[in-house]
Amino acid sequence: MEPQVFVYAVLDALETGLPYMLAFLGVWLVFRIYQDFDLTVGGSFTLGASICAVWIVRGGDPWLALPLAAIGGALAGVLTYVVMYYLNLSLILSSIVVNTALFTINLRLLGVPDVSIIGKRTIVDSFNSALGITQSSQISTILVMGLIAGVVIGLLSLFLLTEAGLALRACGTNKMMARAAGVSPPLMLLLVIMMANGLTGLSGALVVQEQGFVDVMMGASILIFGVTGVLLGEVILWGTGPIRGVLTVVLGTLAYRLLLALAFRVGVEPQDFNALTASVVVFSLLLNLGVTRVVQTRATSSAKAISIAATDASERREVT
Questions:
Q1: Helical (H) or strand (E) element with 214
Q2: CB neighbour list of residue 135: distance below 8 Å, 6 or more residues apart
Q3: Domain of 115, in residue numbers
Q4: What are φ and ψ of residue 195, in 5° steps?
Q5: pLDDT tens figures, 68-111
Q6: Is residue 260 assigned to a domain?
Q7: Which of 48, 78, 111, 189 is most deeply packed, by most CB within 10 A?
Q8: Count of domains in the chain?
Q9: CB of 230 closer than 8 Å to CB of 28
């Protein structure tokens, strides 16, 4: 592979990966902190993109479209929680119900299956105007998306280190102990679902401004894409902790998008990308399983060694 091809692939990965990174973080919040799946993210991703596209087409400020999209995604998460709580359903089942309803909502919002915002003012155009740049470029897109992603990731990391973030993580680890400490698990679950879908809705708004259009089916595979990024990131950066978890998503997202960019550059057809994604998921799961077994084996060996040493020491004391 020529070095130039790799450089172009890296730029493509940054340009397309940075907007998706926030959606993958939303998937990670539920998938790793609560060990569950929220399928609402598919609909909330499209909802955020649809809100953004309609707002921009009607002449709205592209920067204001971002918080509107995040609020729309968060409200979709609230709806999932309401369905789950009042109908006594699991998170997966309630999210399927809401995600199905969101397809109709998104289609009604758009009016047509897809809407283009090409030629309309976006956050990249606004950024270029502020710097006096006359023509948009890939670098300026990367800078804008990287700046927004960096701010959101920094705020999320700080939140996870606060008392509320600790309570949220505690509920994901052990609900009974968290309740005994005065934390409300239902409230924390509502919070994590809102955050996950708010991040996903914001990601949808960034993606539509990066690619120039929204499609009613664009969020259909966002959950599996997000899980792929998380698993791939855990292969690259193994460990625990909230900050390390956020970093695994960052690295996993960029690595996943780099794989797709390289595949496209070397001639892999786009219709084969789903098969490539499935292969990456299986490969990442196998590696994670292997690393987990190695860690467990070493921990068991260390425990046995400590036990043997303690037994020997006890026998020596008895002899003396």
A1: strand 213-215
A2: 128
A3: 3-220
A4: -65, -45
A5: 999 999 999 999 999 999 999 999 999 999 999 999 999 999 99
A6: no
A7: 48
A8: 1
A9: yes
